[in-house]
Specification:
alpha+beta, 12% helix, 9 strands, 3-methyladenine DNA Glycosylase, Chain A
């Protein structure tokens, strides 16, 4: 008999820990997106850790800006950024206030509200692809910069909440280099900070960083 996932919201204390403790512990947790069109729930299957000023791959490596300000705030809040001029990606802030560490939510399995997610991800060939990658995840959930700074640690019907779910056993967790990160930040020997559920079909494929060509 499969146990029903725990729907209790994760506490602030869960996120007020080092990012490398929080990141793998997020696998199997449930992210709930509440919208006027209905709720969508997603089981997290892939994440990446980013450790602020100590991490050359982090948006906060060079200090605080208007874009990354939420990363420096209280743990358990949502940091949303816009990338490549077309996509949004979402993170969960962790560690002590002022430390600027966060976990990028890379992929997950839609467990509720798949019908709504499909209307936002028309190019998905099947439901396993609805949230297979950070931009796809944000698109499927209808996440944009208006949700930057949302508190995800509340029992109220806020736009985004993280529930306890069913944590993944440590022997089912894999880790390796982060996807698309340049330089030392993408070196798997130094920063093997991408974590995923072994053999889960919703996990995105690994891709090394490819420098973008400037238009002539």
């Amino acid at each position: 008999m499969i146990a029903t996932p725990d729907r209790t919201p994760l506490s602030r204390e869960f996120f007020d820990r080092p990012v490398l403790d929080v990141a793998p512990d997020l696998l199997g947790r449930i992210l709930v997106r509440t919208t006027p069109d209905g709720p969508i729930a997603l089981r997290l299957t892939e994440v990446e850790a980013y450790d602020g000023a100590d991490d050359p791959g982090s948006h906060a490596y060079r200090g605080r800006t208007a874009r990354n300000g939420v990363m420096f705030g209280p743990p358990g809040h949502v940091y949303v950024y816009f990338t490549y001029g077309m996509w949004f990606c979402m993170n969960l802030v962790c560690g002590p206030e002022g430390k600027a560490s966060a976990v990028l939510l890379r992929a997950g399995e839609i467990i509720e509200g798949a019908e709504l997610a499909r209307t936002r991800r028309l190019s998905a060939r099947n439901d396993k692809e609805l949230a297979k990658g950070p931009a796809r995840l944000a698109t499927a959930l209808g996440v944009d910069r208006s949700l930057d700074g949302t508190d995800a640690c509340t029992s109220d019907a806020t736009p985004l909440r993280v529930l306890t779910g069913t944590p993944v056993r440590r022997d089912q967790i894999r880790n390796g280099p982060r996807t698309g990160v340049a330089g030392d930040g993408g070196n798997g020997d130094i920063h093997p900070w991408r974590f995923w559920v072994a053999n889960d079909p919703t996990v995105s494929p690994y891709r090394a960083h490819v420098p973008r060509r400037r238009r002539s």
